[in-house]
Amino acid sequence: MTDQRYSRQVTDQRYSRALRRHLVAEPHAVRAARQEIVDTLELHGPVRARVALLVSELVSNAVLHGSGDAIELSADLDDGRVRVEVYDDGGGFEPPPPPREGEPVPAGWGLYLVSRLADRWGVDGGRRTRVWFEIDHHG
Q: What are the angstrom distances between the C-alpha of 129 and each of 1, 20, 34, 90?
């Protein structure tokens, strides 16, 4: 099941691109979300790599920890900023503390990576969980 809305606007030399997509909460959603966001937003270089990695982490978390069978993905590129939001039907959570140096941790590095690579990020709970991040983008 795929529902995609895409828009591109050019206003006073500023570009605005947006992607909205509903994904089935299955492992293949990770690759599809990552590729579609970086292609639709026409990202390049280090920003492309950061966004691709963080989208993979957030969608993976939604597949593994969400309680429903659908994930909603939202991405926007506007003047100087990329914003990505991932929604699932989980009840929310408190972000765990970062792993301590020297402590073996086989999993659970996703949100730590988000906290280190995103310029801003957050988690909102309630009926649905929303995890989002922003990366400043110049050019």
A: 20, 16, 19, 6
